[in-house]
């Protein structure tokens, strides 16, 4: 082994000296500029063809024995990853199997430890897995483990709506922040009125703060649309109360909030009637028109069947009739859309009939169709 190490060292040193000598020679004769910084130290910038890629000489530093040129060979990192992937594919030098159900995924412990703090702790903290070649993983599917291991060796990740949630959960467990961030960005792009509540709850469970904040903001700004979805009807009573008491709800009036709550109760009246009196107090009923309150007390079956609700609305109606001060602050005014329309134009000296719309808030363009 000592002979092999010495032989290897000699090869490496000779290779470094060869690069250094040839580089300095080419620097002296090339057209690339070198700027003197101090005796024995200079900084230079040149480009060197390496296959199809370009590697740059970053700096040259003085170590007391002359100037050393520092190289950053970007192609080298890619080649190492490719070679590691080939070694794994042929099961060369692999020293661990990740067993999921009945499937085993072969890998190198050093790669797993470098890519995941979870595996790093598993293999370097004296746990029993440090000395075993088979590690059984729980709570994750084989496909997800294969995707994560492929990412560790390549930096490549494929995400769709079917695997994004289990992939994000597994990446959180294995503390792979790059995968977590990629999944969060994917979910952010998928946010719509009919899925935003589910994404919001999932982000909260996984501790994805930024995704949770964006989903929450979407719900607040699009409450009228979100409140018509199936996910809204499946909210728990506590989650509904927490939502409707927010000042940030973007609604045209308080009737929109009241009607949303009534739809929620009507979805499962037998289970939710008992919760109605407490939830009703989170609606800013003092901002409901007296005529609307009167109509609800007379014609709404849910209100008529719950004495506490009817009494509460009657009290509000009386206070409004007596012009008593309103309780609770006004919600933020409705946010109007900011749109720009691009009409017509000329191309190749011909008039165009195209009509486009730009949404400032979403930073998106949409083609509305040709003008007649």
Automatic annotation (TrEMBL):
InterPro entries: BACK, BTB/POZ_dom, Kelch_1, SKP1/BTB/POZ_sf. This is Kelch-like ECH-associated protein 1. It holds the Pfam family BTB. Coiled coil: none annotated. Residues 94-161 form the BTB domain. GO terms for molecular function: actin binding. Keywords: Actin-binding, Kelch repeat, Repeat. It comes from Hirondellea gigas. SMART domains: BACK (SM00875), BTB (SM00225).
